[in-house]
């Protein structure tokens, strides 16, 4: 067995929420920054630290909480359209049955993510779930990955972190784990490749052959 633990990002990695997020950010940036956001531009520029992303586009700090609340409200209204990526549940079940520990590390809202995990009947596969309930520092800061490893009692050298964004790869490397970048999420392959992930995954089942 190559790894004792696999840690995942949530949005854009396990949960097919990027198109919905883009639609909502498009609405918000039109309202708060008078900008027309295109999908290609979003994929090439979006960063994990969404407050910094607001600032980059001229949304003042005194509006950030309002924008966050608007985003969550719209996301909840649209969440019936969002599902796990095809094959995720089966992949998690197989990893779990291999006795490999599973963790989640996301800068997303804890209440939302845990609700989505339970709704999709995958929460019990996870030994650790680290969200903004537990950490406030954005990736590539490795603290979320480190906290997950501490909770599941696995050394970084025995773990793989899987994510869809440049900062996911950087956070895993900063924590000392192996890293895998998925090509179906927020960042394009061209944006992910310079981070030099150990593995590049083009489909959900592909991960299993590296475990």
UniProtKB/TrEMBL annotation:
**Single Gene Ontology BP annotation:** DNA repair
Could you tell me which InterPro entries the record lists for this protein? Answer: HAD-like_hydrolase_sf, HAD-like_sf, HAD-SF_hydro_IA, HAD_2, HAD_sf, PGP-like_dom2
Signal peptide from the UniProt entry: none
One Gene Ontology molecular-function label = phosphoglycolate phosphatase activity
One family from Pfam that matches here is HAD_2
Q: Which GO terms describe its cellular component?
A: cytosol
Q: Which family does it belong to?
A: Belongs to the HAD-like hydrolase superfamily.
Recorded protein name is HAD family hydrolase
Q: Which organism is it from?
A: Fermentimicrarchaeum limneticum
């Amino acid at each position: 067995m190559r790894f004792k633990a696999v840690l995942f990002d949530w949005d854009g990695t396990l949960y097919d929420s990027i198109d919905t997020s883009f639609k909502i950010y498009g609405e918000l940036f039109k309202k708060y920054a008078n900008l027309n956001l295109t999908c290609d531009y979003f994929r090439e520029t979006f960063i994990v630290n969404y407050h910094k992303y607001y600032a980059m586009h001229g949304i003042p700090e005194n509006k950030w909480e309002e924008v966050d609340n608007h985003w969550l409200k719209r996301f909840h209204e649209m969440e019936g359209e969002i599902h796990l990526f095809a094959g995720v549940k089966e992949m998690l079940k197989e990893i779990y049955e291999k006795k490999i520990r599973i963790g989640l590390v996301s800068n997303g809202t804890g209440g939302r993510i845990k609700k989505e995990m339970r709704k999709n009947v995958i929460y019990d596969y996870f030994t650790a779930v680290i969200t903004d309930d537990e950490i406030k520092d954005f990736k590539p800061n490795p603290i979320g990955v480190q906290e997950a490893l501490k909770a599941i009692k696995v050394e970084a050298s025995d773990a793989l972190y899987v994510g869809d964004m440049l900062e996911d790869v950087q956070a895993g490397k900063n924590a000392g784990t192996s890293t895998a970048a998925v090509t179906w999420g927020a960042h394009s392959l061209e944006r992910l490749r310079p981070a030099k992930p150990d593995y590049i995954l083009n489909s959900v089942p592909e991960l299993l052959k590296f475990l």
